[in-house]
Structures are given as structure tokens and as C-alpha cells.
Design brief:
The protein has four helices and 14 strands. The chain is of the alpha+beta class. The chain has a single domain (6-195), classed as Jelly Rolls (Sandwich), CATH 2.60.120.620.
């Protein structure tokens, strides 16, 4: 891998709940980032004002994979291409090492497009599915202000992160977080969720 090793990321990730890296520092090849970015432009979008964890939102969402009752690829064949990229064996092996897992699965994947006034409310990703371990967020919006990623919990003051074009955020799903209002431009981020479980959504089964 061209960037930091899994062992190098563990300390900060499990302390702060989140790490922010440039794509060259991350486990993803820049060519794959570029390919994913082009695929997001081909998706249909819908407005969402209540998130999957029940939080208030104001965001437009394009979906590659949903996780209502179980993981499901949608908007195929575009989503097949995106899924093939994020599940490359070398990426899954990195995530296995990072989270000490024997198996890694991607359960949900979508692009969030946020214009001025858009925000994502305070929430826990495990409320969407208790099997979510981490969210991988690829920042594809280039010119925007606002839209800070704020992470809470861990017995510490909130941590503020400012994603930038061609950055990757890795965030543990057991830490509450939010995205502040975008002030100008468009903040576009691709997010997908890492899990060791690929069966039915256990929240849905309750």
C-alpha cells in the first residue's frame, strides 16, 4: 500500500474515533477514486430529510447499495462497477487487518450531495445496523465551505474534521457524529459501511 499501514492508523482511529487522510496516504489507489467519482455522476438522486438512523437530514442521496432488510445493489449495472472497486482483495485485506476481522463485507454505499443549507444531523451509524463497524467516506466535492465532520464521544471534547477533495475519512460507527451546514458550493461524499456480517439487517429483524 502507498499510504499508512493498518497498524499505523489503529492508534488514532480507536482514540479519536476517526482519521482523515489524503487519498495518497490511504489504502485506495487514486485511479480507483477517480473511477468511483465518475460513477457517482451517473446515479439518480433523491432528497432525504430523515436519515437511516432516524436523524434529521437535508441532503440529496444517490444509492449504489441499500441495507434495509439486507444488503442489496441498486441502480445496476453502475453499482456493480462501484462494488467491484471497493471490494478489491487488497482493500478488504487492509480492512481485515485494521479491524482484526476474519471476514469483511460492504453493506451500504451511497453518495451524499450537500448544497448550501444541507446538513446531516447528530446520529450513530450502529442505529442503522448494529453490525456496522466503520464508515469509509471519500470526499469528492472540491469547492465548498462549511460541512465540517464532527465526532463526539470517547470521553473527550468534540473533534472537528474538514474533509477536502480526494480525502478519505475512516470513522468508527460506535462514535456519534454529524455534518454541519454547508455554507457555499457543493459537498459530495461517497460513504460505504464495513461489517463482518453479510446476512439480514439485525435492526430490521427486531
Amino acid at each position: 500500500m502507498p499510504g499508512a499501514s493498518a497498524q499505523e492508523l489503529k492508534s488514532q482511529l480507536f482514540s479519536d474515533g476517526t482519521v482523515l487522510l489524503s487519498i495518497p496516504e490511504s489504502f485506495m489507489d487514486e485511479s480507483d477514486f477517480d473511477w468511483l467519482e465518475s460513477l457517482t455522476l451517473q446515479l439518480p438522486y433523491e432528497h432525504v430529510d430523515v436519515g437511516d438512523a432516524g436523524e434529521p437530514n437535508n441532503v440529496s442521496v444517490g444509492r449504489f447499495m441499500t441495507d434495509v432488510e439486507a444488503p442489496e445493489l441498486v441502480n445496476r449495472p453502475i453499482s456493480d462497477e462501484a462494488h467491484k472497486i471497493v471490494t478489491r482483495p487488497k482493500y478488504l485485506e487492509f480492512l481485515k487487518e485494521l479491524f482484526d476481522l476474519e471476514e469483511v463485507h460492504i453493506r451500504r454505499m451511497q453518495i451524499n450531495a450537500m448544497k448550501p443549507g444541507s446538513f446531516v444531523g447528530h446520529h450513530l451509524d450502529v442505529d442503522s445496523n448494529p453490525d456496522y463497524i466503520a464508515a469509509i467516506v471519500l470526499q469528492m466535492g472540491e469547492d465548498f465551505t462549511g460541512g465540517e465532520f464532527i465526532v463526539h464521544g470517547g470521553g473527550r471534547p468534540p473533534r472537528h474534521f474538514s474533509p477536502f477533495y480526494k480525502s478519505m475519512t475512516v470513522s468508527l460507527c460506535e462514535f456519534p457524529h454529524e455534518v454541519t451546514k454547508v455554507e457555499s458550493g457543493e459537498r459530495r461524499s461517497l460513504v460505504y459501511f464495513v461489517s463482518s456480517h453479510n446476512g439480514p439487517n439485525r435492526r430490521s429483524a427486531k
